[in-house]
Amino acid sequence: MGVFVFLPLILPLTALPIARLAEQHLHPRIAALLLTWVGAILAACSTLCLGLLVVVGTAQLPGNPLPDSWSDPEVREAVPYDEVAGKASIGALALVVVACTLALRRHYGFRARAHRTLAAHPDASQVAVLADEVPYAYALPGSPGRILVSTGMLSGLSQAERRALLAHERAHLAGRHHRLLLTVQLSGCANPLLRPFRAAVGYSTERWADEEAARVTGDRRTTARAVGKAALISRRAGVPGLAAFAEAGPVPRRIAALLGPVPPTGGWPPALTAAGMAAIVAAAGTAASTLSALNAAIALFFVLQSATYG
What we know:
mainly alpha; four-stranded mixed beta sheet
């Protein structure tokens, strides 16, 4: 294994350039899906790497629950600085578990509170209008998914802009964007170097829903105006893992994109373009991290097997 076992921990350094290239040059749907998958795979490889380091680095410590044969010198020699790396990995892996647990608790806690609120509105329609002066609009996943929109938000929009808002939120539900957002949030918990994917996927899912709203309404300018007005009147922060119509951040970029031409919906972009480079770098980094993690796992398995049965 050698130093290559550490590779999955540092390869996420490519997250920032990948995120910027993807969100700027790829179609929003492609960018959101690509970045989510890349983030999930890199996070899984990073976590697997920490687990391997914990096993190898603590095998020689007295009182550990691992088999005594795993403290064989051949096992310890498989990883450089095994004792230091193992002890550090214990703390890092514990932080990953705590961060992911808190993120999941916050996400599902908000969903549970929202569904309890909807219990007071037995209307079977997909859209639930809540009497609240605070302007907000959410796509709340569930069986079935619902759209939560406040009277404060609706009062600030015209009839055509309301249609754009509802089309936008329906696109979030149809695309299951909450799963993408939650996945990249957990990826950032597993490895902080992957946090740029969270903002990039958030922007891409909003752009994806913007384009769907513009297609459904047939009016890109009205959709852009709805996004801008909602951002101006909204004072509520977004909830991690859920999609809100107007959030602080790249709203001017969303409006500019809606006022521009429809983005191409082709598949894999040409290699000799910025979009192609984004896709290639993402694919290469993910493949390298995955192969490195799998190589380390397989090598460790055979080393431990040899130490146990040899």
